[in-house]
Protein: Enoyl-CoA hydratase
Organism: Shewanella frigidimarina
Amino acid sequence: MSHIQVRDDQGVRIISFNRPEKRNAFNLEMYQQFTEYLIQGEADNDIRAFLFHGTENCFTSGNDIVDFLQSGALDDNHPTVKFLFCLLDLKKPVVAAVTGAAVGIGTTLLLHCDLVYADNKAKFQMPFVNLALVPEAASSILLPLIVGQQKAAELILLGEAFDAETAEKLTIINRVVAQDELISFSLAQAKKLAALPPLSMQASKRLLRHNQAEVKAQMKLELVEFAERLQSDEAKQRFQAFLKK
Ligand SMILES: C/C=C/C(=O)SCCNC(=O)CCNC(=O)[C@H](O)C(C)(C)COP(=O)(O)OP(=O)(O)OC[C@H]1O[C@@H](n2cnc3c(N)ncnc32)[C@H](O)[C@@H]1OP(=O)(O)O
């Protein structure tokens, strides 16, 4: 069974992560598949919104650490890079439903979503420095805009996990929803978006994200730094330590 699954429901393209044995860690094939489903959805006039979710106890543990160890050049053809720019450029609205852990890109991709809901067991973490890396997905610009400079520094430099209640207070997510209602509620919200006039919806999203050029430039800067850190001895030691644990 594919680790990225897709189905369409009344104008909503639902993309789910399904690799629970590795806590839905994104490997290169998953990034590629995810990007393809997004590109197809953007091109399909019947699709008017996206919904992302994980499995019952995990959204995603972020990038596959094994892939970090084997990573090639992070150029424009790299599946992770392609995914990040595709996510950034999405014209149609995106809803995310977070169950359990959302680590690394699992948290930073939420900053590109338009509505984010989480259950009360959700845990968020951006452990980039802990892994001897740097923030990605433009989180170094988006997070300070959302939560303020000092709080962003705390979340990124210390890299500690925080719960759904904290994420709601910081407005990283819209609302905490009971676990058994999370997917149905998030889907209902996505269907509401899908039912509204699509061109107005897309223009409004574009206006809300008026700083896209700056965000994209920051994402590019992050990737240069990230690629360099990825090759460092301190990062390799951290990856090995996680995998041996
Ligand atoms: C460009 C993007 C950058 C980023 O995304 S950086 C962030 C990278 N991600 C991480 O550092 C997260 C690493 N994972 C965790 O911290 C924990 O996991 C969780 C909190 C998500 C879940 O903890 P628990 O429920 O106790 O599960 P478990 O025993 O740690 O993991 C179960 C199996 O899943 C594998 N796994 C988990 N996350 C990853 C990952 N990110 N990459 C590769 N494998 C992963 C483990 O190794 C293990 O596997 P086995 O059962 O074979 O021992």
User: Anything to note?
Assistant: The chain is about 50% helix and 15% strand.
